[in-house]
Amino acid sequence: MVDDDPTVAEVVVDYLRQAGFRTTHAADGPAALAAADEIAPDLVVLDLMLPEMDGLEVCRRLRARGPVPVVMLTALGEESDRIMGLELGADDYVTKPFSPRELVLRIQSVLRRAGTPPEPGPGMLRGDGIEVDVTAHRVTRNGSELSLTAREFDLLCFFLRHPGRVFSRDELMHEVWGWQFGDRSTVTVHVRRLREKVEDDPAVPRHLATVWGVGYRWDAGPGASADAASG
């Protein structure tokens, strides 16, 4: 838990511990990075407004070290920073003031998706050089392994399971991540990040197409398939 407000930190840490999490608090960016090196956390709750080093820089450095899930805390009116945080690899965000109980539920959701396949059942998903081992939570493209966040992995699996069908951003928020509400720009950011990793030219996507005024569609290439066991 990274936040320089001792009151917020105390409340959040207390809620997290009551929910069964082993929790460490850091009050600034350098302390957060040092703690991450020492304990290798399963998830980081990261405030954007920090002394010495802001949350965006902390997120950037965390993402450079590995795929640890990040839930960002943002203040009202910080939409541009929130979007930038998602672009840097944050898995979710909660806007201040927030309910500690909601934060705990968001954290539990991110951890479930970071550690388990988005849908039950083992199997492989394939499409034009992209191969997803759902059980191992591993993605390769033309033989090279890709580093995807939990949200990006969920999104890719969902599209590969439903090629050729158009989904609105609201449908993707609900069907992929189980959100009943949220900022639609979150979907836009994750789609853009996923394109950067699976497309030869993200500006002219061959697979993850935008259907203007409707949503997004995955266009399957040659050899696309999903093993029966993957659903």
Automatic annotation (TrEMBL):
Keyword list, A-Z: DNA-binding, Phosphoprotein, Transcription, Transcription regulation
Domain OmpR/PhoB-type, by residue range, is 122-220
Q: Which residues cross the membrane?
A: none
What this protein is called in its record is: Response regulator transcription factor
- Does Iron-sulfur count among this protein's keywords? no
The keyword Cytoplasm belongs to this UniProt entry's keyword annotation: no
Name the Pfam families on file.
Answer: Response_reg, Trans_reg_C
Q: Which organism is it from?
A: Yinghuangia aomiensis
Q: Which residues does the UniProt record annotate as the domain Response regulatory? A: 1-111
Name the DNA-binding segment ranges: 122-220
Q: Which residues carry this modification: 4-aspartylphosphate?
A: D47
Read off the CDD domains from this record. Answer: trans_reg_C (cd00383)
